[in-house]
Structure formats: structure tokens, C-alpha cells
Amino acid sequence: MKNDKQDLNAKILLLKEARLQTLKLHKLLLDIERNKYERQNGQVTSGQFLNLLLNEPDLQWLRKFSSLIVQIDEMLDLDDGYTEDMIDKYLGQMRSLIDFNLADEEFERKYQNSIQNDATIAVKHAELKKLIA
User: Which of 12, 27, 23, 10 is CA-nearest to residue 78?
Assistant: First the structure.
């Protein structure tokens, strides 16, 4: 029984660290996309950029990261706790996202382009991939 509890705690810690690393990766991607947008269209406020993230089809691919982070946060905030299956589900979704197993060509193309064109993104991607391998 103690090993089961230790395994669950280890998975919880892994998910929390993976969530944090995904959040950092997401922030880097957001910064790059904002810089691209502002070079073409001029400066926007944070509120305007948030609106663009929610409504601009060209930025839709970033929502896969946002959505996963929010889902993990909601699970971690549950009053009645969470199960190992729930943790495994989100770790699996994270693996699918960074391993390009989503059957989403636009996401894959844009994310791979970001990895190839920015060394910081490539390093963060590799660190996350190694963490949840």
C-alpha cells in the first residue's frame, strides 16, 4: 500500500513539474507569436493579444497548450483529489502533444517550425520530452 501511495505521489510531482515546464514552453511560444504579429500589425496591449489568441485562427494552434494546462490546473484543484488514471491521462495528452501524435497538421507544422527556428524553444521542448518520457 505504501508503494502505491509513493507511486501516486511521484506521478503527481511529475505532472506538476511537466505542467510547469509546459507553461514555460507555452510562454516562449506566445512571446514569439506576439512578436511576429506586432512586426506585421503594430503593437497591441496584453488584452488585445489575449483577444487575438482566443479569436485569431492563425493562433489557434497555441490553444492546445493553453487548454491542456487549464485542464491540469482544474484537476489539481479538485476538492476530492484525483486518481492515478487522471494523472496518467494528462501525462499521456502531454506526450501526444509534444510527440506530434494529434493528427493536427497545422499544430504540427507551426510547432515544429518554432522548434526549428528558435534554440530556446528546441531546448525547452527537449527538456519536457525527456521529463515525461
Answer: 12
16-74 tens-digit pLDDT: 999 999 999 999 999 999 999 999 999 999 999 999 999 999 999 999 999 999 999 99
Question: How far apart are alpha carbons 107 and 111 in whole angstroms?
Answer: 6
Q: Which of 126, 133, 130 is nearest to 25 (CA)?
A: 126
8 Å CB contact between 21 and 128: yes
Return the number of other C-beta atoms located less than 10 Å from residue 21's C-beta.
20
pLDDT, tens digit, 9 for 90 and up, residues 77-114: 998 888 899 999 999 999 999 998 877 899 999 999 99
SS3 letters across 30-61: HHHHHHHHHHHHCCCCHHHHHHHHHHCHHHHH
Number of H helices, E strands in the chain: 6, 0
